[in-house]
Protein: MmcQ/YjbR family DNA-binding protein
Organism: Kribbella hippodromi
Amino acid sequence: MLHAQHSVGLPIDYPSFGTDGAGSCGYARGEYGGGGTLTGMADLGVVERVVAGLPGTEEGVRYGMRTWKVGGKAYAWERPFSKADLRRFGDEVPPAGEILALVVEDLADKESVLAARVGDGFFTIPHFEGFSAVLVELGRASESALTEALVDAWLVHAPADVAKEYLAKR
């Protein structure tokens, strides 16, 4: 388990990704409830289903893109590439399909997530330098990896009492 501190003091245990042989993430091991392993690749339908189960989540639109918030703060949003983003890729082929941005606790957590999930479609771009968020190419992410990342992002901004209650029910 990776250990972090919730922004309001609630300790968060992040599963160590796949190192114990019991599954690739906390969701697959039943740590986030729901029981069992999710299969298949992620899409916005998975995002909608997961966020619907996270207490206090509100869906809205920010910069013309769907955004999910808790406690008035965005924790996930659709993030297509801008023309400037695409220019920065140069000759490199940019990730394709639906892209989701997710907040993380801090820049150290961002580096941990990116190192652990590089093969799962998690990445960053120059525009996100110095910003505590990662991007996910949904077509490359498993449902279980995305579910875990969405819960972790929600925990960053969820009020401490709501987060404690949610985690206690798991």
